[in-house]
Structure formats: C-alpha cells, structure tokens
C-alpha cells in the first residue's frame, strides 16, 4: 500500500502495490500496522456500502459531530466517482479547504478521511458502488453536513448535478459555529 498525502492535513489517497503475474495480481487493501505507522486510526468498527444508479448524482457533504466523529476509508468497487472532502476542523492548518479526486474500479484508489472532514461525491458513471469503513458507529443524532455548492468552499465539481436529495441540497450556508 502506498500512502500519498492530500492537500487536506491528515487525509491520504491509498494506492495498491500489486504483485502481478500471468494470472493477474494480488495486493493488500488494508493493513493496520501501515495505518498505525502514520498515526492514523486503524480501529474500524463498521462497514457500509453505497449504491448509486445514475451518473450525475451527488451525495454529501456529510460528517458526524463529536462524540461520534469518524474516520473513513473509502473505495469504489464499481464505476467512477469524483470524491470531495472539506476540512471543517477549526484548528487545522487546512481549515475550510477542499480536496477532490477521481476514484474508480479501474484506478483502485482508496481515500482515508479523518474525523472533522465533510465528505461527498458525484457519480461520473451509472451504477456506482462504494465500500466504506468507519471508526465510529453511525448515530443519526450526530449526522450533519454542509451544502455541496456553499460559496464558502467554492468546490469545482467536474459535471453538473443531475440528482441530489432534498436534505443534501438544503443545508444552510456554512457558519463556523454550526459544526
């Protein structure tokens, strides 16, 4: 596994180190010791899957507030998406900055997202499936988000949003005291 730091402090893109032969390849997708070496949480307690049928569907920008804040490890198992995170950690050196990258079943990249980071994505193909690992259990009362098109962040999405939930589209404008 190769860890590449993103422009968001503490967030990483993970790439596979493949061992290939004429049958195909083998690669580790998870190794707790590699995470611990970098000071990253390696204690995942829940895994979830998301399936989105249509290209142009936006989900996000979600996060859980303390005491149920969570780190996430995300990987696309089918299709292509543009994944975005926003740093909402007030004391972070990258506070209010965003980072986006394409994740797909062909590039096989994963994304490690620290707690305090809002996360969302837009599908770039039909039938996208994503697998998540989280370090905290989902708690509805702690779940919240920020709007994907909030002018405070100026995210540049690669395509127009064709579909979004009413909840995700209706988050109020970001205020520092709202997170």
Automatic annotation (TrEMBL):
Listed GO CC annotations: cytosol
Gene Ontology annotations of biological process type: dTDP-rhamnose biosynthetic process; polysaccharide biosynthetic process
Annotated positions for site Participates in a stacking interaction with the thymidine ring of dTDP-4-oxo-6-deoxyglucose: 138
Reaction(s) the record says it catalyses: dTDP-4-dehydro-6-deoxy-alpha-D-glucose = dTDP-4-dehydro-beta-L-rhamnose
Pfam family, one: dTDP_sugar_isom
UniProt KW keywords: Isomerase
InterPro entries hit by this protein: RmlC-like, RmlC-like_jellyroll, RmlC_Cupin_sf
EC class of the enzyme, as a word: isomerase
One MF annotation (Gene Ontology) recorded for this entry: dTDP-4-dehydrorhamnose 3,5-epimerase activity
Pathway assigned in UniProt: Carbohydrate biosynthesis; dTDP-L-rhamnose biosynthesis
Active-site residues (renumbered): 62 (proton acceptor), 132 (proton donor)
Gene3D superfamilies given in the database record: Jelly Rolls (2.60.120.10)
Known EC number: 5.1.3.13
Domain of life: Bacteria
CDD domains the record matches: cupin_RmlC (cd00438)
Entry similarity comment: Belongs to the dTDP-4-dehydrorhamnose 3,5-epimerase family.
PANTHER family: DTDP-6-DEOXY-D-GLUCOSE-3,5 EPIMERASE, THYMIDINE DIPHOSPHO-4-KETO-RHAMNOSE 3,5-EPIMERASE
Classification via NCBIfam families: rmlC
Function: Catalyzes the epimerization of the C3' and C5'positions of dTDP-6-deoxy-D-xylo-4-hexulose, forming dTDP-6-deoxy-L-lyxo-4-hexulose.
The protein's assembly and partners: Homodimer.
Annotated protein name in UniProt: dTDP-4-dehydrorhamnose 3,5-epimerase
């Amino acid at each position: 596994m190769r860890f590449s730091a993103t422009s968001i402090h503490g967030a990483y893109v993970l790439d596979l180190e493949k061992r290939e032969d004429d049958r195909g390849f083998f690669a580790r997708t998870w190794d707790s010791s590699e995470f611990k070496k970098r000071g990253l949480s390696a204690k995942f307690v829940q895994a979830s899957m998301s399936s989105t049928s249509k290209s142009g569907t936006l989900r996000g920008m979600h996060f859980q507030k303390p005491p149920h804040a969570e780190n996430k490890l995300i990987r696309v198992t089918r299709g292509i998406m543009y994944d975005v995170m926003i740093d909402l950690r007030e004391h972070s050196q990258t506070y209010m900055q965003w980072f986006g990258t394409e994740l797909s079943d062909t590039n096989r990249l994963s994304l490690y997202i620290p707690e305090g980071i809002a996360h969302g994505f837009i599908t770039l193909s039909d039938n996208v499936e994503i697998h998540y690992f989280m370090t905290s259990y989902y708690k509805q009362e702690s779940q919240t988000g920020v709007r994907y098109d909030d002018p405070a962040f100026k995210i540049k999405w690669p395509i127009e949003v064709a579909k979004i939930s009413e909840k995700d589209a209706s988050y109020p404008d970001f205020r520092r005291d709202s997170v």
